[in-house]
Amino acid sequence: MTSFYHVCFVVPDLERAMHDFRRAAGLEWSEPVSDRIGEWDFRIVFTTGGPPFIELIEGPAGSPWDATAGARFDHLGFWTDDIHQGSRRLTEQGLPPDFSGCPFGRPFTYHHMPSIGARIELVDLGRQSAFLDAWHPGGAPMPGIAEGG
Asked: Which residues share a beta bridge with 108?
């Protein structure tokens, strides 16, 4: 088993992307949610049915989810048992931090991975129960990267 649990696309039109995925692959979606982090309002949605999930984010210009240049593959998401140690590990391995939700009380961090032209997201395992309640009620726990070894 792996700690990989989702792939994310940043899109300028959430409903259009959901519709296209539904037509192309028969995917079903949870209800989109509006949220705010820092100065940015954004909308987010995940596929139903369990991992791996597809996540879509629609964010404003200048935000970490800016899609003014068009839709794009944004990141791969992984659970980690220690967000701070995981972020340090990625930085030490040459994957620079790109954005952290931690200063906003959100236990996730993005690191740029030049070899794929996108980011890796680490999400603290302590957030998993709330994630499952919101996006996959009754879903089984998913493993996380063991940062301590």
From this structure: 123
